[in-house]
């Protein structure tokens, strides 16, 4: 039989052999990670042609869901190994926003691999004569003696009794109802959206849009959504899906990115089942920047559809109950949320006050204003005046949306810190009727119980919060 030939690629002193996964330069081996090697093979096979980022990610990570940054890191490592660079692209050309192209001249040739010689004698052929010879040496076993009538009767009785017992057991099982399987709520983390344009003026959208979706889904009982502070550390960094899921103890992840070009905004998301590695939903939204306030609704709706959640009528109503009316006011709100997360409380207050002036009927603006005033009074030593403003802001938020969970959590924390535990506890207990799986409610209730001297109850609530969100410390 003819030997198969191996296809080799050569360029500028390099020799690439996909069959044995080797890359040589002037006869010396070049070390590459498996993914970087596969990227190089793919680019060279399409020499001179554009290979899009989506094509590369589908081919290199066929059964995984990874961020685009993983591709960037591997291409960077490949360039370094080849002596290439983004500034001097002699081998791998970057096609902005699209993908990569291998530009060096490549020659191909076929080479026969070394032949393999069988070791040892061939196995002896087995023919009819040898079979007969072996059969002739086998001992002849005596036939068993015939059994008596009594033994056959006993055997029949035994078989009949066994059949009767099996039928009885089957009948009892049919009458016993199967235990009801109660599915555990999904554990979901929504990571900050990545800014693909690296434009600092729009970086605020990454965290604040994720926070908006997290807040929106906080009313859904069938979800345990990790809070914004738990995912804030993943801003502006490449993430490894399995590691992030393990760190946050979640089985579902939403990752996304955005790019703004003038008045155009494109947001891309993917919802991943971490255990099965299935893509539950992937989509993109192309919207005018003035329609920014619709993003939280669209993403939330797609998550609910992707997870096939059945909402109660009250849950569905709460999801649609508080809509911002002004695009500019909503942008100021998002900027304020981002600044608060960065502990820049005076600037956060400035943005949120501008938002409230333009649209005074958006409850979450007042809730975050109350939270920012509280932080300013506590950390910026603004004192009593900030606390008065915080109380007024919380009152306004509850007047607009009495059942908003995040507002109640922020207000309860404020009441506990200002010595009004007796008001904080019933506020939190009432909120649990909306969503008993909300970790922040249990944590704040444990915090309030501690100040009230109810240590046993405090420990129980904090432990419950940790069960719902193991990231709690």
Please give a quick description of this structure.
The chain has helices at residues 34-45, 53-60, 68-82, 128-137, 149-175, 204-217, 228-231, 241-248, 295-306, 313-319, 327-341, 345-358, 363-379, 384-400, 405-417, 421-431, 439-452, 455-468; strands at residues 6-11, 14-17, 22-25, 28-29, 51-52, 92-95, 99-102, 107-111, 186-190, 194-195, 223-225, 252-261, 264-273, 278-288. The chain is an alpha+beta fold and 473 residues long. The longest helix has 27 residues, at 149-175.
Explain what the structure shows:
The chain is α+β, with helices and mostly antiparallel strands and 473 residues long. A hairpin with a 3-residue loop joins β6 and β7. α17 (439-452) packs antiparallel against α18 (455-468). Helices cover 49% and strands 15% of the residues. Mean pLDDT is 81; it is low at 115-151 and 171-182. It has three domains: 6-110, Winged helix-like DNA-binding domain superfamily/Winged helix DNA-binding domain (Arc Repressor Mutant, subunit A, Orthogonal Bundle); 186-318, Rossmann fold, CATH 3.40.50.10070; 327-468, Tetratricopeptide repeat domain (Serine Threonine Protein Phosphatase 5, Tetratricopeptide repeat, Alpha Horseshoe).
């Amino acid at each position: 039989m003819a030997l198969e030939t191996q296809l080799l690629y050569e360029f500028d002193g390099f020799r690439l052999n996909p069959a044995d996964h080797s890359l040589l330069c002037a006869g010396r081996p070049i070390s590459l990670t498996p993914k970087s090697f596969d990227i190089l093979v793919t680019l060279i096979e399409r020499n001179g042609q554009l290979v899009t980022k989506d094509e590369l990610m589908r081919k290199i990570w066929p059964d995984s869901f990874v961020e685009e940054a993983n591709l960037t890191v591997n291409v960077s490592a490949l360039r370094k190994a080849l002596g290439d660079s983004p500034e001097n692209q002699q081998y791998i050309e970057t096609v902005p926003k699209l993908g990569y192209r291998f530009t060096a001249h490549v020659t191909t040739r076929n080479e026969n691999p070394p032949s393999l010689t069988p070791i040892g004698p061939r196995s002896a052929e087995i023919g009819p004569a040898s079979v007969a010879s072996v059969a002739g040496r086998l001992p002849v076993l005596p036939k068993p003696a015939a059994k008596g009538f009594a033994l056959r009767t006993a055997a029949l009785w035994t078989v009949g009794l066994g059949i009767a017992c099996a039928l009885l057991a089957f009948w009892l099982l049919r009458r016993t109802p199967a235990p009801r399987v109660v599915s555990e709520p999904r554990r979901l983390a929504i990571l900050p959206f990545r800014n693909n344009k690296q434009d600092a003026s729009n970086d605020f959208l990454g965290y604040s849009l994720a926070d908006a979706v997290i807040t929106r889904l906080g009313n859904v009982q069938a979800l345990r959504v990790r809070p914004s502070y738990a995912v804030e550390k993943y801003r502006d960094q490449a993430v490894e899906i399995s590691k992030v899921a393990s760190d946050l103890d979640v089985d579902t992840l939403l990752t996304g990115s955005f790019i703004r070009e003038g008045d155009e905004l494109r947001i891309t998301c993917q919802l991943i089942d971490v255990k099965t590695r299935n893509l539950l939903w992937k989509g993109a939204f192309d919207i005018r920047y003035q329609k920014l306030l619709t993003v939280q609704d669209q993403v939330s709706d797609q998550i609910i559809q992707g997870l096939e959640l059945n909402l109660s009528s009250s849950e569905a109503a709460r999801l649609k109950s508080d809509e911002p009316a002004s695009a500019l006011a909503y942008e100021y709100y998002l900027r304020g949320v981002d600044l608060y997360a960065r502990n820049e409380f005076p600037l956060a207050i400035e943005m949120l006050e501008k938002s409230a002036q333009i649209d005074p009927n958006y409850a979450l603006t007042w809730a975050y204003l109350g939270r920012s005033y509280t932080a300013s009074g506590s950390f910026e030593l603004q004192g009593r005046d900030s606390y008065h403003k915080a109380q007024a802001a919380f009152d306004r938020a509850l007047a607009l949306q009495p059942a908003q969970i995040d507002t109640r959590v922020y207000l309860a924390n404020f009441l506990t810190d200002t010595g009004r535990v007796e008001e904080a506890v019933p506020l939190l207990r009432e909120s649990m009727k909306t969503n008993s799986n909300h970790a922040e409610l249990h944590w704040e209730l444990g915090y309030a119980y501690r100040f009230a001297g109810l240590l046993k109850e405090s420990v129980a609530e904090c432990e419950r919060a940790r069960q719902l969100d193991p990231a709690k410390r």
